[in-house]
Amino acid sequence: MQLQQQVSQCSDREQIQSVQRESSFPGLLVNFDRAEAVRVDGELYSRLCIKTPLVTCGVNLEGFVQEYAEPFLQPGDILIITEKIVAITQGRAMPVEKIRPSLLARFLSRFVTRTSYGIGLAMPETMECALRECGRIRILFAAGIGAVGRLLGKRGWFYQIAGIQASGIDGPCDCTIPPYNRWVVLSPKNASEVAVRIRDSLQVEGVEVAVIDFNDIGGEIIGWSDDRMDLLLLKKILADNPLGQGNDQTPIGIVRIV
User: Fold this and answer.
1) Could you report how far apart the first and last alpha carbons of the chain are, in Å?
2) What domain of life does the native source organism fall in (predicted)?
3) Number of structural domains, the chain?
4) For the packed helices 124-134 and 136-151, what is the interaxial angle rounded to 10 degrees?
5) What is the DSSP string of 221-246?
6) Containing structural domain, residue 106
7) Residue 77, domain CATH
8) Distance CA 42, CA 196 (A)
9) Could you count the other beta carbons within 10 Å of the beta carbon of residue 200?
10) How far apart are CA 38 and CA 45, in angstroms?
């Protein structure tokens, strides 16, 4: 199968050129058809996006956040950062052409269901990354459990066993900003430690940081700067993926109670 055929295609929403509008806070944006604010558990929260240059390997993430996000922060804000830019700055991204999948990866990838929001492990190169990240035994066990789940009409068992290091792998996708539309990005390492470092580097007091992995059907908080943060509440606030998924180029944002 040619690489072009394997690359995840964009959904109808993602094929539309990103349309961003100014929020009620100068300099901060709202993506496409997302609402600026949502009401959750009786409180109103703004979800504010920050447009940035393309992030590349070797960028100092703390300095990047200080330059592009800190001028907009207020005490009480939660700074949200996509897992993809954390992984990229850690050097955990590579061109798909440089990955040489094993026979096992080619075999297992055939049984992964492709979805509209990403190719996941449904191509040999991303499955090979999962085997390297998680180990063959764990992936084989997860594949067996996943097969049982499918027989019972249950989905998601594979990723529950394989873990976040597998579920967090992002494959190439036409709607992603080049060059990452032809790259594989792994799940970041030590996301909570990264969140703590970023928080501690800020001059604005009272700000917490979350590393998030969301797409247009939901997501997870994979790193946080304080164990007292209400992660379930934050997931509800971010349920519609306000930072976007295509070429929005808004990898960081702010959650602010209104």
Assistant:
1) 50
2) Bacteria
3) 2
4) 120
5) EEEES-TTS-HHHHHHHTTT-TT-SS
6) 99-185
7) 3.30.1330.100
8) 29
9) 10
10) 5
